[in-house]
Amino acid sequence: MSVPPEKIAELKQIIHGQLSQIGMQSRIRDVMSEVITEDYSNGQVSEQEIMQKLKERGLVDDLMSNLQFQNQGDGQSLRRPATHFLDQDDKVTNLPVKRANIDPSRRYLYFNIKNGKAFLEHIENSDPMPGQVSSYFTFHIHFRGQRFKSRPVPCACEPDVDEGFLLEVHKESSGEAGKMVDESGMLSICDKLHIALIKTDVTGETTLVSSHFLEWRPVLTAKTGRFQTSIELKGTGDESKMAAGVIDIQLELFPKPVKIIGQEVLTAQLSMERNRQSEKERLFLVYAKQWWKEYLQIRPANQERLVKIFAQDENAITRPVCSFVKPLRAGRLLDSARHAARFVSLMHHKKQESVGGGNKLEQWTTVHGFLCRNRGDCEDHAILLCSLLLGFGLDAYVCIGTKSKGSVHAWVMTITVDGLVTFWESLNGHRYIHEPIDPDMPPMDKMHRPKYPYKTIGCVFNHQSFYGNNQPSEHVDVSHFELGNESRWKPMSQDAVLSVCGLGASPSWPTLPPLCSSTLDPTLVSNDLEQQLRVLLFEHRRDLGLTTVWDDQLSYLLTPALAAYELERVTGITAGNEEFQDSMKQCVPDGHTFKGYPIQFSHRNARRAFATCLRSPVCEEIVNCRGDHVRLAVRVKIYPYPESACATWIMFACKYKSVL
What we know:
The protein has 16 helices and 23 strands. The model is unreliable at about 70-100 (pLDDT under 50). The longest helix has about 35 residues, at about 265-300. It has helices at about 5-20, 20-40, 45-55, 60-65, 185, 265-300, 335-345, 365-375, 380-390, 495-500, 520-545, 550-555, 560-570, 575-585, 605-615, 615-625; strands at about 105-115, 135-145, 145-150, 155, 165-170, 195-200, 205-215, 225-235, 245-255, 310, 320, 350, 375, 395-405, 410-415, 420-425, 430-435, 455-460, 465-470, 490, 590-600, 630-640, 645-655.
């Protein structure tokens, strides 16, 4: 029986995990020691003899008994060859798939995506050759604090998805948390089901193909408790009015409702919610126009300032900027506000580009879409970081302004109880203490100038406040951030902001999703990437006519340095440098020279990382090192963060005998 490639990869990974266990390793070492002691008189030990001893000791049987496969025996995993797509996260912690246990006292919504059609952009990808790597789709689902992700599906005009998700319909009333929600209760639940379709190409680049908010309540009108329909997925950004494709879906309630809601009742409920939402938005728009008029009357030059009250999301829907921010608690996934800043900085930065070039596209992606794509613009990073800092109890705001070269930028600001202002750069995790400069003072020298890269600031906001900069100068270095002083910052009415951005005020706008823990096994992916880099370095030196001798001890001793670098990035504190320097002095003999080159990436692509490193003269000097007693080392340490973010630290090093 032939085994598909994905099962071979899965089998290798599970066997590797079993062999990595301490007990199994010690038993193998005992057998190896015994075989060598008994049979070394022959001059060599054959592989067959070692395998025979392992079988006699029962190690092979124990290993086979511990193996667990996904979908064992049901044949479902053989339906689609995984060779049609490239799984960038194949080195993950394997957990056996279990059947979902349905609590009969709870209400569930089963959402099934059957198949797709009319994805015309991928019509040429309909028949990938066996073994060919191509782009793939992934569906991400968010509903009332629950998140799910489909398996990768090869990009095609008619992708065969066939994926189901079991979603719990919560009863939120206090004291009735364990009570099954009834039909009238479900009718009043206005949260929509968010479907984010992500495309990943062969290079690992991700694209948000569609972001659709599904109204699920028509299932309440189905007499059988099962509702089937087709939904058209629209594109995002410039393509938000264009169809990206169509998916056939099925909704089903478990257990089946006793009472069926009439179609006219559902229509009336949805109409009432839309009218209520429209009226709130209309009243806020009237207030915002009046606020802006008063703001311009204070100083006509305010017309040129970046006071952004509304923004468009990926579906080209205009919303108040305050509605994008909500306090977000990370549970046990992030330990502090600085860990949150580090996590957000590891999300890839990608500017939104419009078709035909020109200025960048105006698009603020919803947090769920940003997390699923794992890349976004500076506004997306700032909104996520501000939400996390609010979740950690800080008084945080998103700032809209410009950088030193005049480009529009967004960053985060926190204000302590004592009035200390700190700027947080969400793209790199740096923090800057702000102290306003007296504009009447003489110019400062370079050493004492502010270190932050921000030039002007137009407004600051969070989930319940909005302030427009009303100071004579919009330059950051001379601005004061006493937000309660209306002569410097013109506030919006908090009641007006909360009327459309408060909790439950606008059900048509998405709630923030919870963060998901990383699926990466850091030890496994670190070892794998390190081996790939060793091969690349060996081949590079071979092409130059150089031999490569590895020093495993030196490689191991580089680990504390990488740990110290990551700790410094998170906390700003340097630790362990003395021990590392002492270990290097012990490892490098007298008369020898040590050189090291550390670098950090937010991806795990070995070839990209190696090519980037070679552009550094320091690293190139290490990789191309010539001389006496040259020993090379490379160490990789990967630190996983929530979602698919990770900090990949790599250090190349060498030691050689000094000739001079």
